[in-house]
Structure to design on (670 residues):
């Protein structure tokens, strides 16, 4: 085995003792090597600049549970490789996914305002992950992978290569993430905790099929004859009625087989599209701070006068606690599809339970506390005009429904 | 499923494929649940907050060389390997030793008390139970008669009893999407030894008084120890007590933060 602790051109990290990959060595889980491709391919020695390194070159991490003697076939470039550059480490409970929408906000007075997304990538998430109580070896590999991600990507093309990671359900689609910092704790001999935040830059709100929860995590397209149960998520293609198209959430307590009548736009529908129907936990607290004018006169004396209409719009911050995985997925999916700026109906508890009050939710956080135990904290801001019920449902065919299968 | 009460003789305790001469055993399992209530005053559900955890506690006699797997000070702390075993035929596969303690007093056999944390499924109890008749032939077991303590002179000449214990924190590591731990760490391993006698020795300093002691456990007729349990730490407390018609009893407590160093990768 090569004994150098630093392989030229491989990128430097603060973690020492990373050796070159060698055929014939035995490797076990969480081993780190630098793979140049030279040994396997028999090509000339690797060039010395990162720019000219082949795509296969770089640090690799052994993900196999069983130790194995290395061969060409199970080398990082081999067909049956256990080596990876992806984040294969499994995060611990609790993990959280923090959503926030980047918007341009305009205030027009009298409580009227407008929220517009800054771009099609404005709905961002932060995966806040902890890798608690891990062995020294796993922690070393994990922190090396994090730090080495900063060695990738070359100017002037910009954007260093991110870390490929398949998050936990319901976000379980592989994407490229970026980190900006990590924290490692030395808890006890052979017991360490590492935490970081994974960021995504490229999720588009123009992708109607999925945002952060993949399409496969839903019931996909609603169909007659299918059995649906509470909190199922299905997409209705509205057949020439675009306003009817969209994501629907099954609110019935019992499983039913779908018919046109109990379907999303049926007369006895068990589905909702715009109604936030989820139970609110006990312990809700509502703070009100009505808008008013406060005119200083003299010697800290103020004259207070009323400030127009819509002066006490609700701004609710609360958490939906202890939810099943399925319900939490439906809650987050509902909020995702409203993109942090679109209105939905929500009836606060009495005595605030006015009908037809609408809200937007610009930020929320999903925390996976434990298996089948989730919390979703939300920030609902009341909107002064109910546009949900004012949606005009044109039945004139202007174009083909783009969402129609 | 058991349809009748199972006798003690059929309630064999086995750990790591070894029959334990248990005097008593108790297996408790509990789920950690959080009631979730809504604002209209109804229970939505009971949400789990951590894995279902069992605790197996038992007292047993040492009938030969002490089983290392029952000592929290063994190398298992670095590998996190689980112990498998069974109680009256109910099997478990993920046991983690959590504590060990015993007391020595004149004319008394030494009864070891152990505790394991258990994760994962247990199969159902049935009428057959489990037994090991070989245990009936065990006639020699750990006893205070010949057992003794050696090491630093703690200035207690007439030692009347010792209490020794090792305790650890076991923390399950559950990764997202799983119900059961992928690892159970061993942390904060602490050894405590108390010695009772006619005196409490030198007055303790603010930093404690150092003592290095070894308890040698022998059986009734033994000449060499079945096991040695060490405690190298600080004498941190002294107690004197007396009651009418009695004598002054002294007790000292020694505590060791047990660390075995760290192998950095």
């Amino acid at each position: 085995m090569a004994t150098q602790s630093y392989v030229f051109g491989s990128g430097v990290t603060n973690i020492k003792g990373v050796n070159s990959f060698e055929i014939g060595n035995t490797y076990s889980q969480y081993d780190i090597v630098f793979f140049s491709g030279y040994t396997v391919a028999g090509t000339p020695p690797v060039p010395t600049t990162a720019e000219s390194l082949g795509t296969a070159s770089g640090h690799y991490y052994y993900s196999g549970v069983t130790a194995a003697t290395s061969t060409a076939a199970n080398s990082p470039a081999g067909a049956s490789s256990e080596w990876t550059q992806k984040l294969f480490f499994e995060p611990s409970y609790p993990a959280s996914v923090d959503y926030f929408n980047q918007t341009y906000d305009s205030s027009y007075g009298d409580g009227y305002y407008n929220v517009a997304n800054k771009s099609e990538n404005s709905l961002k998430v932060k995966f806040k992950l902890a890798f608690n109580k891990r062995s020294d070896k796993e922690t070393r590999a994990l922190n090396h992978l994090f730090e080495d991600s900063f060695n990738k990507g070359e100017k002037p093309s910009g954007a260093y290569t991110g870390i490929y990671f398949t998050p936990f359900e319901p976000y379980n689609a592989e994407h490229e993430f970026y980190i900006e910092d990590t924290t490692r704790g030395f808890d006890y001999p052979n017991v360490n905790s590492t935490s970081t935040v994974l960021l995504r830059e490229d999720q588009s709100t123009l992708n109607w099929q999925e945002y952060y929860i993949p399409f496969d995590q839903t019931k996909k397209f609603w169909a007659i004859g299918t059995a649906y149960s509470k909190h199922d998520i299905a997409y209705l293609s509205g057949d020439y009625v675009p306003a009817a198209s969209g994501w629907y959430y099954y609110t019935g307590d019992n499983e039913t087989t779908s018919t046109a009548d109990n379907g999303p736009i049926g007369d006895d529908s068990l589905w909702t599209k715009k109604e936030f129907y989820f139970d609110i936990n006990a312990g809700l607290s509502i703070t009100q701070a009505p808008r008013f004018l406060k005119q200083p006169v003299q010697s800290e004396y103020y004259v207070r006068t009323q400030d127009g209409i819509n002066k006490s719009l609700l701004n609710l911050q609360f958490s939906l606690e202890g939810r099943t995985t399925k319900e939490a997925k439906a809650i987050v999916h509902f909020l995702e599809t409203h993109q942090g700026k679109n209105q939905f109906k929500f009836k606060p508890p009495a005595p605030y339970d006015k009908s037809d009050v609408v809200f937007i939710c610009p930020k929320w956080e999903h925390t996976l506390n434990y298996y089948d135990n989730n919390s979703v904290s939300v920030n609902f801001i009341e909107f002064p005009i109910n546009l949900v019920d004012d949606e005009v449902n044109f039945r004139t065919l202007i174009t083909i429904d783009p969402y129609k299968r | 499923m058991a349809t009748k009460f199972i006798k003690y003789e059929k309630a064999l305790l086995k750990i790591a494929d070894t029959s334990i001469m248990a005097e008593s055993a108790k297996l408790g399992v509990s789920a950690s649940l959080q009631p979730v209530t809504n604002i209209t005053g109804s229970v939505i559900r009971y949400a789990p907050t951590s894995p279902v955890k069992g605790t197996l506690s038992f007292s047993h006699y040492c009938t030969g060389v002490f089983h290392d797997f029952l000592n929290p000070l063994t190398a298992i702390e670095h590998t996190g390997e689980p112990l498998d075993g069974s109680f009256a035929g109910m099997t478990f596969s993920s046991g983690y030793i959590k504590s060990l303690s015993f007391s020595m007093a004149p004319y008394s056999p030494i009864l070891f008390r152990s505790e394991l944390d258990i994760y994962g499924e247990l199969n159902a109890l049935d009428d057959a139970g489990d037994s090991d008749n070989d245990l009936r032939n065990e006639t020699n077991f750990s006893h205070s008669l010949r057992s003794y303590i050696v090491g630093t002179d703690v200035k207690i000449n007439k030692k009347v009893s010792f209490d020794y214990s090792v305790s650890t924190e076991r923390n399950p590591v559950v990764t997202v999407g799983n119900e059961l731990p992928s690892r159970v760490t061993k942390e904060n391993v602490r050894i405590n030894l108390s010695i009772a006698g006619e005196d409490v020795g030198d007055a303790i300093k603010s930093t404690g008084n150092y003592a290095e002691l070894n308890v040698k456990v022998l059986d009734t007729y033994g000449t060499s120890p079945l096991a040695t349990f060490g405690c190298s730490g600080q004498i941190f407390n002294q107690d004197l007590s007396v009651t009418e018609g009695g004598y002054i009893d002294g007790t000292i407590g020694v505590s060791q933060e047990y660390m075995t160093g760290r192998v950095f990768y």
In short: Residues 136-148 of chain A form the longest helix (13 residues). Residues 218-272 of chain A form one domain.
